[in-house]
């Protein structure tokens, strides 16, 4: 599955939400992707235009123009039947450090983060 967004919105530690790390974006077609994790949780949540799914073992690769999310085939219902979501983005290079920190916080101990920055 693929979507295109103008901007990845990231918050590595939201004080108002019990220090939750959050990454989200909206596609040009109105789809919304959301990935979150609380620091005391062992799993992360992914939502793609619907109810969130709790997952572990997620692999995420970040490049200057692409965010690739790979999940276990058994969890494909979280991504509407796909086990890969490719998000093409135009996030400003100055904001990618915050996106990277957010992904590291979300995936620490429960997934794999690969940086291509």
Quick take:
This protein is mainly beta and 117 residues long.
Relative strand content:
35-45%
Provide the residue-averaged pLDDT.
Answer: 95
Total DSSP helices? 1
Round the Cα radius of gyration to an integer and report it. 13 Å
For the secondary structure, the number of strands is 10
**How many strands, which pairing sense, and closed or not: the largest β-sheet?**
5 strands, mixed
Terminus-to-terminus distance? 22 Å
Low-confidence stretches: none
Helical/strand content category = mainly beta
- Number of structural domains: 1
Order of helices and strands: EEEEEEEEEHE
Strand ordering within the main sheet: 1-9-8-7-10
- What is the approximate shape? globular
- Estimate percent helicity: 10-25%
Description of the structure:
The protein is mainly β and 117 residues long. The chain has one domain (2-115). The chain is 10% helix and 44% strand. The protein contains one helix and ten strands, in the order E-E-E-E-E-E-E-E-E-H-E. The strands form two sheets. Strands 1-9-8-7-10 form a five-stranded mixed beta sheet, with helices on one face. A five-stranded antiparallel beta sheet has the order 2-3-4-5-6. It starts with a strand and ends with a strand. The model has no long low-confidence stretch (mean pLDDT 95).
